[in-house]
Specification:
The protein is 84% helix and 0% strand. It is mostly helical. The chain has one domain. The protein is globular.
Length: 267
């Protein structure tokens, strides 16, 4: 179990640090590869949707049915699933739309002249804060999945890491234009992603002392709800904003296929 905890924390750290990869792409890439980002975001959504419904929700229901019986177990699974959606939905609503971290920002904007504008700096800083808030439950989702099944945790961490790359661009672009300082833009981008391992660590401190099959089932169901909401509300709309609707769907199907094949291999 202790080894799984370390693996889970490291996977969450990896997923969170992907925002730094996004800022590096903003600094060094000459153009936005919209087809690649659209496919990648669709792939990430496919992995998360498939694993949530087929593996995590089913595992949560199995645990709770064994502990509480069929009717109570299934009812609690469904309740926690929608509670997870409600949690991430409330967080999303608390972030004003003009500061939404999932607004698409292209690499090409890095070539525009630097405007030392305090409003841009405020927007970049608030975007970083918004991403940190969004990433907190994502860290819990990655951590709890990896605790029970490290191989499953790897797949979820990879999916969330892909999803975090455009967020890194979203932080880096306005902060660079406000300050002209690439190092500062990179630091804030990286820090916004560190909310994920922080969320994982808090989950470890709060949940592990009380962990039981019933609590684990509730957490799994909530995690499934969180990941479904992220996929439908953030990943797929962001993929479509890059203007490649069909490619994002191809990515979605590919992600589901990869996850299905992986689960067969792990069975």
């Amino acid at each position: 179990m202790e080894q799984n905890v370390l693996i889970a924390l490291l996977l969450t750290l990896f997923a969170g640090l992907a925002t730094g990869i996004g800022s590096m792409i903003a600094f060094f890439a000459k153009s936005t590869n919209k087809k690649f980002l659209s496919f990648s975001l669709g792939l990430s959504a496919g992995v998360m949707i498939y694993v949530s419904f087929v593996e995590i929700f089913a595992q949560a229901q199995d645990l709770l049915v064994v502990e509480l019986g069929t009717t109570k177990g299934m009812s609690l699974t469904v309740f926690c699933f929608f509670a997870g959606m409600l949690l991430i939905g409330v967080i999303d609503r608390l972030v004003p739309s003009f500061e939404n971290p999932h607004e698409v920002r292209s690499v090409e904007r890095m070539e525009e002249p630097v405007k030392r504008d305090s409003r841009l700096m405020k927007m970049g800083t608030l975007t970083a804060l918004a991403i940190a808030i969004h990433n907190f439950p994502e860290g819990i989702a990655t951590f709890t999945s990896a605790i029970e099944n490290p191989a499953l945790g790897v797949a979820i961490a990879a999916a969330i890491a892909i999803h975090n790359i455009p967020e890194g661009i979203a932080v880096a672009v306005p902060i660079y234009h406000a300050t002209g300082d690439k190092k500062k833009a990179f630091r804030l981008s990286l820090l916004s992603g560190l909310a994920e391992p922080v969320g994982a660590f808090i989950a470890y401190l709060l949940l592990m002392p009380f962990m039981s099959p019933t609590l684990l089932g509730c957490v799994f169901a909530a995690v499934a709800g969180i990941m479904i909401f992220i996929s439908l509300d953030e990943l797929l709309p962001a993929a479509r904003e890059y203007g490649e609707h069909h490619i994002s769907i191809y990515g979605l199907i590919a992600g589901m296929g990869i996850m299905a094949f992986s689960l067969i291999l792990l069975a």
